[in-house]
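tool_call predict_complex ligand=glutamic acid
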Amino acid sequence: PGRASEAAFLVISLLMFRCCRPVLRRKAGILPSLEDLLFYTIAEGQEKIPAHKFTTALKATGLRTGDPRLKECMEMLKVTLKTTSDGALDRHLFKKCVQSNIVLLTQAFRKKFVIPDFQPFCAHMDELYDNAKNLSGGQVADYIPQLARFSPDLWAVALCTVDGQRHTVGDTKVPFCLQSCVKPLKYAIAVHDHGTEYVHRFIGKEPSGLRFNKLFLNEDDKPHNPMVNAGAIVCTSLIKVMNFMNKLAGNEYVGFSNATFQSERESGDRNFAIGYYLKEKKCFPEGTDMTAILDFYFQLCSIEVTCESASVMAATLANGGFCPITGERVLSPEAVRNTLSLMHSCGMYDFSGQFAFHVGLPAKSGVAGGILLVVPNVMGVMCWSPPLDKLGNSVRGIQFCTDLVSLFNFHNYDNLRHFAKKLDPRREGGDQRVKSVINLLFAAYTGDVSALRRFALSSMDMEQRDYDSRTALHVAAAEGHAEVVRFLLEACKVNPVPRDRWGNTPMDEAVHFGHHDVVTILRDYHTQYSPQETAANKENADDIYLSM
Ligand code: GLU
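tool_result ok
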């Protein structure tokens, strides 16, 4: 269905240029609106769209019906459906439902999201999930009863892209505690609130090379970094507000396990020892109540998330601090960049160096079995499975992360151009030729000369025609884009007198719409024009253009 609707959309997009009397047509109100184009795309030739067909098509793009960005659309859909007898939407009703969120919806159906072909990508994710599911090694943490009670079979992966495309597989709705996965979040909040310089007056930036809960400071008597307990405890003394967590998760599930908090406090002798040591070494800002900070530290460890909600948190980090599903700016770019850097070097306990080497992505694990993984500019992932390896990382989670970068070119140092053995889900699939006609005509239509230059430079055929034999020159002439017309004629040496299906030339268009400047440019070419000459010129078009 994805392919079919994509094909339908391409056809519809082509229709836009069909007779290309846009000014008149727009005035007459017959130029198709985005809502109409979307209707034709989803309806696939039918008169009406059944509601379930719409939601199914929507989900295939990765959007959820519960996405806060689609609230108006979904509410209107609910109301509208009550007025229909058959639960289907005609063009008029459809328009009513989608118009408030048309920009996002158009983006989704034109495959403009970061993972354009989302369904095949999800199928790969499910395979990776299944592959790790069979692993049986590892131990569930048992130092507190709240962790010991988890079944070793629990296993979940959730992802959220920077465009808010969602996919989940496994036990993604079971709450668990962030534990150490909260460390990068509170560090990010501290930097967001106080800036890098202030935060790092108290905490270093270097991997410690020691276990996360070691009672040890660096040569300046500071904790090594904010991802180990000492650094995280100091970091706790720098932050105040909790509503950040809700914002990071786009208001999805964030809870608190009071029982875990109590247990952590009761069993937290090592953290108390670290606290007193930090206090002795004057590691906290002046006036800090160390025991209150320790309580806050244990509370932060006890924040509950689900795999789903945590994937949104990770996606906010992947998206430069903007929550993808609310659009809200939660963290400064500086805070996010710092955080990702330190997750990359220090996020995976004593496996951090190896993880950076093999996986090459920022991540942070926690004792509850979570791994918060970030693919910067692409997506956030939360993996969760309680059994831990000897270094304290989720066994299945590590397997998943490793497999992920073997399949896709997500490793920070994968070359995006030449490493053909790995998949790049960011790349657009589909019929490139049809797309290139659309891109070409669309650029001509909007007067986007710089896009046209790029196309010409990448040796696109600038004389391509749509199925009505319209060329970029026709479209630009009809729209009165003199600069585009000049570029096409002078730089690209396109045929100045192509005839479309109705026999019209670009000159006819320019005259018809009264674009006198375009008429003047075209006239020069018309008088010079002879077919042989143009064909000969065209062979040199690339060279001439490149030398401009
Ligand atoms: N509550 C644990 C501690 O501070 C967190 C452990 C972890 O997730 O690394 O010791």
